């Protein structure tokens, strides 16, 4: 609200994983479930943002790096307030997003970019990054940022190794 009121030329990024993780994954006004566990009216974050006067609003998938980059670039190119809502389910509450990812060590040049994601499934073994398949949720963020395309679904990497 202050940014609208002061006509700030900034970009505000709101991350929305539909939970309150810092205190134990309780429901909150955006989930539509009360503290007692009953269905209630859901607060729509986009409506709140628009309601305070934000005109430039984008809602993007937190697991789509290209979409996030595009929204950030478009917002930065504007000379007015922009808000980006980056939305995606909390990995702890939705443990599997897709097929487990692995690193093809034949393609990997050990650049370490995958480690910058901060994913607890990506670890380092000596100098070689590895993905703990028991911890991977299959979100594919690491695959999207790997410049050598050395990360892929477990089934794909296995089939390529067998060729």
Tell me about this structure.
The protein has five helices and seven strands. 18% of the residues are buried. The protein has two domains: 86 residues, no CATH class; 61 residues, Alpha-Beta Plaits. The model has no long low-confidence stretch (mean pLDDT 91). The strands form three sheets. A three-stranded parallel beta sheet has the order 1-3-2, sandwiched between helices. It has 163 residues and is α/β, with parallel strands linked by helices.
Chain-wise SSE layout:
Layout: H1 2-5, E1 11-16, H2 45-51, E2 56-61, H3 65-76, E3 82-87, E4 101-103, E5 122-125, E6 128-131, H4 141-145, E7 151-153, H5 154-161
Strand content: 15-25%
Number of helical regions: 5
Domain count, please report it: 2
Which sequence of strands runs across the widest sheet? 1-3-2
Radius of gyration: 19 Å
- How many β strands by DSSP? 7
Short description:
With about 160 residues, the protein is α/β, with parallel strands linked by helices. Helices cover about 20% and strands about 20% of the residues.
Keywords:
two-stranded antiparallel ribbon, 163 residues, 3-stranded parallel beta sheet, alpha/beta, globular, 22% helix
């Amino acid at each position: 609200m202050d940014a609208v009121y002061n006509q700030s030329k900034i970009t505000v990024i709101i991350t929305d994983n539909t939970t309150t993780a810092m205190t134990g994954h309780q429901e909150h006004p955006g989930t539509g479930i009360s503290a007692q566990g009953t269905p209630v009216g859901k607060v729509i974050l986009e409506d709140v943002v628009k309601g305070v006067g934000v005109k430039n609003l984008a809602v993007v998938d937190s697991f789509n790096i290209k979409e996030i980059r595009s929204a950030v670039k478009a917002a930065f190119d504007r000379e007015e307030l922009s808000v980006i809502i980056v939305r995606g389910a909390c990995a702890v509450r939705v443990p599997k997003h897709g097929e487990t990812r692995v690193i093809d060590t034949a393609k990997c040049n050990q650049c370490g970019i995958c480690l910058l994601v901060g994913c607890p499934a990506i670890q380092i073994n000596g100098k070689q990054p590895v993905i703990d398949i028991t911890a991977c949720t299959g979100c594919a963020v690491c695959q999207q940022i790997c410049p050598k395309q050395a990360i892929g679904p477990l089934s794909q990497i296995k089939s390529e190794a067998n060729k």
